[in-house]
Amino acid sequence: MAHDHHHTDTHQHTHTHDRHHAHANTDIDWAEMAGHLESQAELFAPLYESALGWLGKEVTEPGLIVDVGSGPGVVSCQFAEVFPGARVLAVDGSEPLLDRARARAERQGVADRFGVLAGELPGVLDELDYPADLLWAGHSLHHLGDQRAALTAFGERLAPGGTLAILEGGLPSRFLPRDIGIGRPGLQARLDALQEEWFAQMRAELPGSVAEAEDWPTLLSSAGLKYARTRSFLLDLPAPASDRARAYAVETFSRFRDTLTDDLHADDRATLGRLLDPADPASLHRRSDLFVLGVRTVHTAVRPV
Fold first, then answer.
1. S-S: 16 plus which of 9, 42, 47, 74, CB 3.0-4.6 Å?
2. pLDDT digits (tens, 9 = 90+) for 23-46
3. What is the pLDDT of residue 13?
4. Could you give the percent of the chain with pLDDT greater than 70?
5. Nearest-angstrom CA–CA distance, 224 and 84
6. So what's the pLDDT on residue 30?
7. Helices and strands (H, E) in the chain, number of each type
8. Residues 148, 165: contact at Cβ < 8 Å?
9. Whole-structure pTM value
10. Those residues with Cβ within 8 angstroms of residue 170's Cβ, 6 or more apart along the chain or in another chain
11. In sequence order, what are the residues at sequence separation of 6 or more whose Cβ sits closer than 8 angstroms to the Cβ of residue 198?
């Protein structure tokens, strides 16, 4: 099973951090992805802050928050800050990423109520000492072959009245206008199409993969949960881009070049080359029209009392 993380752009399926050639090996080296996962989650912090603020109105004074597929713990630590009375447990299949999560909790002064748990999902959740009041799965569910069964397992680890929140869906992030003055207009839309192919292959190759319509409220209800709700959150970092946003865009497009180029038209390959050439006036390093616009969707439901 692939390990589970806040892919943090992920497929929105959001996986700008782990896009692969549509016919390539879909295994992901999460430890190698650590820096990108952290930088992306930090850039998207305002969006997560909005989402966690909304959850705070849904879930009052939780005792235990479990971050399922926590990755390096950026969002886990945000939970610790937003819910100062809660204990936060970061759960992931990658111990190197959990080491980073633990170190981040130390730096942010929340280590006294922050723990980690390493193991494969959803089975590792059987090791919880007590049920969760809030269980968060940020772009991790889609790395489990049988998503319906995983949701049921997640729900079973909730306390009565506890909330399951999954971050799945949204919209592909945008960095550039449709027409950027070089190459054919619509480059990002064509990259999206290749990413969708990669995502479908990744899902199909997971152990025990089950094709499932991504009707998350219905799936949450089928897991025995009630009161399903959905809300989307926006990250809007307009041009001109900050240094952090520009670095994120360069890293994202570098991954496009490294993993999708075999399926790209020659014109688009040439455009990517120019976008990534620091000496080119039209590059991401120098463009004045570079921005970051992203949407993430959260679905929640409650375990009946």
1. 9
2. 344 456 666 767 777 888 899 999
3. 35
4. 89
5. 29
6. 62
7. 9, 9
8. no
9. 0.87
10. 12, 14, 232, 294, 295, 296, 297
11. 15, 19, 20, 21, 22, 24, 26, 259, 260
How large is the angle between the packed helices 95-107 and 74-82, nearest 10 degrees?
A: 40
Q: Above 70 in pLDDT, residue 229?
A: yes
- Each as own residue / partner, the long-range contacts of residues 275-284 (CB below 8 Å, 24 or more positions apart, any chain) are 275/180, 275/182, 276/250, 282/180, 282/181, 282/182, 284/175, 284/246, 284/249, 284/250, 284/253
Rounded to whole angstroms, how far apart are CA atoms 100 and 202? Answer: 26
Distance CA 80, CA 152 (A): 25
C-beta of residue 110 within 8 angstroms of C-beta of residue 89: no
Whole-angstrom Cα distance, residue 271 to residue 262? 14
- At residue 206, the 3 state secondary structure works out as coil
Q: How confident is the model at residue 7, as a pLDDT? A: 42
Q: Among the residues of the chain, which ranges form H helices?
A: 34-43, 45-58, 74-82, 95-107, 147-156, 187-205, 216-222, 243-260, 266-275
* Tokens, residue 84: 């100062």
The predicted-structure confidence for 193-219, as pLDDT tens digits, reads as follows 998 998 898 899 999 999 999 999 999
The count of other CB atoms within 10 Å of the CB of residue 41 is 26
Tokens 């959905």, residue located: 230
Mean pLDDT, to the nearest integer, of 178-203? Answer: 93
How many CB atoms lie under 10 A from the CB of residue 60?
9
**Which structure tokens are listed for 223?**
């897991």
Question: What are the structure tokens assigned to 162, written together?
Answer: 């506890």
- The residue whose two tokens read 């240094």 is 243
pLDDT in tens, 63-87: 999 999 999 999 999 999 999 999 9
Lowest mean pLDDT among 19-23, 159-163, 189-193: 19-23
> Which amino acid, one-letter code, is at 188?
Q
